[in-house]
Amino acid sequence: MSKISFLDNALQGKHNKTSYLLTIGITLIGGTLASILFIVLLMLVYFLTFRTTVLESQINIILFNPIFILVMVGVSYGIFALLFYLCIRFIHKRKFISLINNRKNINWVRILKGAGLWAGIMGIYTLISLIFNDGTFSFNFNPLQFLYLLILSLLVFPIQASFEEIFFRGYLMQGFGLITKKPVVPLVLTTLIFGLIHFYNGTDLIMSISIVYLHLYWV
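User: That's the sequence. What structure does it adopt?
Assistant: Structure tokens below.
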């Protein structure tokens, strides 16, 4: 199929078009609907428990609360990851680790090295921004809220990042590898899709375009 054995993992189990359409649909559409339902139920329980009137201002305060947002991100991506895992195991009938590498175990040392390297890069970038744009920063430290955010971040972001990377860099990349024998095509396609999906992560048009550019650059 290709000269890259990782892409050849797509040949394991069922790898027809129906399996891919079902997995993508159940994971993304099903996960989105389940997340919306969970948020609605959570809001309903909140207002019924505290017997408060449902006001637009109260809803906005809750929805834009950093802790609530992190919880929702964690729940949503947790649902995505669970549905995705079940689809891989029972629709594709293949081992989940085949989407990560060709080994029997995950190389956690390499993952931690990569995370440490990226943390260092972001730390340097933040330090430079602080030095040259100190007027845009303000110190506002709340120990209790910081602790909540720290714990949630350590739980939520690994789930979010792992799902996105495995889904795009593993599942979709291997899927595109079934169509073409040129490994660069799956790499470029998944990178482009990933970058476009995250286009609006920026605070403005220039930053959004730079996000897509950086994804393509690292190809």
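The CA atoms of residues 4 and 193 lie 21 Å apart.
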